[in-house]
Design brief:
This is Cytochrome c. By secondary structure, the chain is mainly alpha-helical. Helices cover 42% and strands 4% of the residues.
Length: 417
C-alpha cells in the first residue's frame, strides 16, 4: 500500500504540465518559482499599484481589524532578505517568523502547509533572486486587545491548523490529484470558499470533509460552493479562471483580483486539472432548479412592458440593454441573471454592491478587453435599488428573498469607506 501511494504521489507531481518537474538550472528554478508565486496569488496581497512588487502595504479588512500585508522582497532591512530557506518555509507553511512572532491567518498558511518541499525551494529561489529588493516600509498591523497578543495564535494553530502534507486522493487520476494539490495548497481556494467556524477557522482543509469548498462568506458577500460546479461545463470553468468570464457569468468581488493576478497566468494543463478536481468533488444540490414556465412569464411581461412593477420598470430602464428581457445576458460578455449564484445568494449584499458600485472585468492575456458595468448609486435611491434587486432575485427562475431599503442603506454606507 505504501508503495502504491508513493508511485501515485510521484505520478501527480511529475504529470504533464506540472510545475514540479526538476529545473535544468538556477534560472529555470527561479522561473518555476515565479510561476508558483502566481499559483499562490502572492502578488494580490503583497503588491500595490504604484509601489514596488511584493513590497506590501495592502490593508486587509477582517473581523479582528485591519491587517497590513508585509514586504516580502529580499531587502535585508524591510523585507525577508535575511531569511534562510527553513525560516522562509516556516513563515509560509506555519505562520511563524524567524523571531518567533506569529502571523495572523490572513496569511493563508493553514492551506500553504501542504506546499511540497520542491515547490517551497523554487519559491525561495524566486523571492531571493528573482524579485527586486525594496526598502518600502508598510504600515504596522496594530489590532486592539486581545487580538494584538500574537502569542495566542499558538493555541489557534494547535486547534485549527495542520502540518500534514498533501495526500493524493486514492483512486483518482493524476490530473485530478494535480488539481487537488493546487486548490488545497498554493491556490488556497478554501480560505474563501469553505465555511468558517466559531474561531474564524476554515471548517475543512481538504476534500476528505464535505464542508471543503462548500461555500462561505467574505466581508458579507456570500461565496459560492465550488463542489462540482454542476451548471458549468468544463470549458466554461476553464474560461472563467483564465479570463474572468464565460458564457454564463462574469467575475466580481474578490475573485476579480484572483483572476487578474493568479488564475489567468496558469497553464492550460493546470486549469484543466483544477477543473477536473472541482468536478470530481460532486455537485451542489442546494442550487435552485431552472423553471422554464416562470422564466417565460417574466420574459413575456418585460417584452410587453405593460402594468410593470417598480422593480420591472427599473430593470428595463437600467439593466435590460445588456442583460435582456430573458435575463440571459450575452455569452462571454454580459453575465446571466437567471439562476446566477450572486442573485440567489441568501445574503443579497453582493448583488446590492454590484448594483450600487458596478463591476469591471479584469484584462487578461486571453481576454484583454475590460468590460465594465456602471454603478447606479448616484442614480437610484435605497428604495429603488431594493425594488430592482427584489425583481432580479424573484424574476425568471430565481426564487430568493426580497430586499429591503435598509439592506441597501447598509451596503451604501460601506461604499463611503
Amino acid at each position: 500500500m505504501k508503495i502504491k501511494h508513493f508511485l501515485l504521489a510521484n505520478a501527480v507531481l511529475l504529470s504533464a504540465g506540472s510545475a514540479l518537474a526538476a529545473p535544468a538550472d538556477n534560472g529555470e528554478l527561479i522561473k518555476q518559482g515565479e510561476y508558483l508565486s502566481r499559483l499562490g496569488d502572492c502578488s494580490a496581497c503583497h503588491s500595490l499599484p504604484g509601489k514596488p512588487a511584493f513590497s506590501g502595504g495592502l490593508a486587509i479588512e477582517s473581523n479582528l481589524g485591519t491587517i497590513y500585508s508585509t514586504n516580502i522582497t529580499p531587502d535585508k532591512e524591510h523585507g525577508i532578505g535575511n531569511y534562510s530557506e527553513q525560516q522562509f518555509s516556516d513563515a509560509v507553511r506555519k505562520g511563524v517568523l524567524p523571531d518567533g512572532k506569529r502571523l495572523y491567518p490572513a496569511m493563508p498558511y493553514p492551506d500553504y502547509a501542504k506546499i511540497s518541499d520542491e515547490d517551497m525551494h523554487a519559491l525561495y529561489a524566486y523571492f531571493m533572486q528573482g524579485v527586486k529588493p525594496s526598502a518600502e516600509q508598510p504600515p504596522e498591523t496594530d489590532l486592539s486587545f486581545p487580538f494584538s497578543q500574537r502569542w495566542g495564535m499558538r493555541f489557534w494553530n494547535w486547534a485549527f491548523a495542520s502540518d500534514k502534507p498533501f495526500r493524493p486522493i486514492g483512486g483518482a487520476s493524476a490530473e485530478v490529484n494535480r488539481g487537488a494539490y493546487i486548490v488545497e495548497s498554493l491556490g488556497h481556494c478554501g480560505s474563501c470558499h469553505t465555511p468558517r467556524g466559531l474561531g474564524m477557522n476554515e471548517k475543512a482543509l481538504d476534500s476528505g470533509d464535505k464542508d471543503f469548498l462548500a461555500g462561505g462568506s467574505l466581508n458579507d458577500w456570500e461565496v459560492p460552493s465550488l463542489r462540482g460546479l454542476p451548471r458549468w461545463t468544463e470549458q466554461e470553468t476553464i474560461d472563467y479562471l483564465a479570463t474572468g468570464r464565460n458564457d454564463k457569468a462574469a467575475v466580481g468581488g474578490e475573485m476579480t483580483s484572483v483572476v487578474e493576478h493568479s488564475t489567468s497566468y496558469m497553464s492550460e494543463a493546470d486549469l484543466k486539472a483544477i477543473t477536473a478536481y472541482l468536478k470530481f468533488l460532486g455537485g451542489n444540490p442546494s442550487l435552485p432548479a431552472g423553471d422554464d414556465k416562470a422564466a417565460s412569464a417574466t420574459e413575456a411581461k418585460l417584452t410587453a412592458a405593460k402594468n410593470l412593477t417598480t422593480g420591472e420598470r427599473l430593470y428595463l430602464d437600467n439593466c435590460g440593454a445588456c442583460h435582456f428581457v430573458t435575463g440571459k445576458g450575452a455569452p462571454g460578455v454580459f453575465p446571466q441573471l437567471d439562476q446566477a449564484t450572486i442573485v440567489n445568494a441568501g445574503d443579497p449584499t453582493g448583488l446590492i454592491h454590484t448594483i450600487l458600485a458596478g463591476a469591471q472585468q479584469p484584462s487578461t492575456a486571453k481576454a484583454p478587453s475590460t468590460l465594465a458595468m456602471p454603478g447606479f448609486a448616484a442614480r437610484l435611491n435605497d428604495e429603488e435599488v431594493a425594488q430592482l434587486a427584489t425583481f432580479i432575485r424573484q424574476g425568471w427562475s430565481n426564487k430568493a428573498a426580497a430586499v429591503k431599503a435598509d439592506d441597501v442603506k447598509k451596503v451604501r454606507e460601506t461604499l463611503k469607506h
